[in-house]
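name: query_chain
kind: protein
chains: 1
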Amino acid sequence: MAETAKEWQMGFQPAASPVMEQLTGFHNILLVLITVITLFVLGLLLYIMVRFNSRANPVPSTTTHNTALEIVWTVIPIMILVVMAVPSFRLLYKADVVPEADMTLKLTGNQWYWNVEYSDQDSLTFDITMLEDAERPADAPRLLAVDNDIVVPVDSTIRVQTTSVDVIHAFAMPVMGVKIDAVPGQLNETWFKATREGIFYGQCSEICGSRHGFMPIALKVVSKEAFAAWVDEAKVKYASTQAPQPVDLASAAAVR
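structure:
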C-alpha cells in the first residue's frame, strides 16, 4: 500500500522507522515547550503594556539593574537549552552511527535520476526515473511515482551510502527519518530500519538543477521472503544484455 502526505494533513507522516519515531516524539515535546515559552512571553508583554504604560504609571521608575532578575533570566534559558540538548544529542548520535547492517544500498545521484546498487546482491544495479503522467498508473502519486522501486526487507538494518557524479543531490525519505547529501567525490553514510511494509516516497532535497523537483524515490518495504524472491527476479530483469565491447588499442594510442 502506497503512503503519501494527505490533503490538509497536520504533522508528520506516520513514522516507519525507530529513528523517525524518536524524531516525531522529540518534535512534539519541543512544540509543547516553545508554545509554553511563547505564551509566557506574550503574557509578560501584555502585563508590561497594561501595568507600565504612561497613563497607569505617569512617573517612570529610575531602576537600572536588578541582579536577581538578571540571574533568573540568564539561568532559566540555559536550563531550557540543556533540557533540549540532551535528547537532541542522543538522537543525532543514533541517526549518525550506523549499527551492524543486514545489507547495504549505494545510491548515486545524477542529473536528474538515481542509480541504486545492492552491494550484497552481486552488485545488482538499476536506475530510478520519474514516471511522466502518460506512463503513471492512475493510483500512483503524481511527481512521485517511479519506474523502479527500491525494494528492501522489513525489520532489517539498511546501510545507505550516497554519492554523486555531477552536482550535490540529497537522498531524503521522510518516514524513515533519513536525509543525507550525495556529494561528488565523497561517500556519505546513514541507515534506517523499516518497521512496517508499504511503499513510501521521498525526493532529492538539494537544489540540483532545472529538474530538481522531478527526481523522486520510491521505497518498497516487503517481507524477507518476498525480498529474496524479488532479488532473484531483479537479477534477471536488470542484467546487462550488452556484451563488452573490444578496445581498439591503436586508436586509443592515437587519441593520446
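note: The chain has a mean pLDDT of 90.
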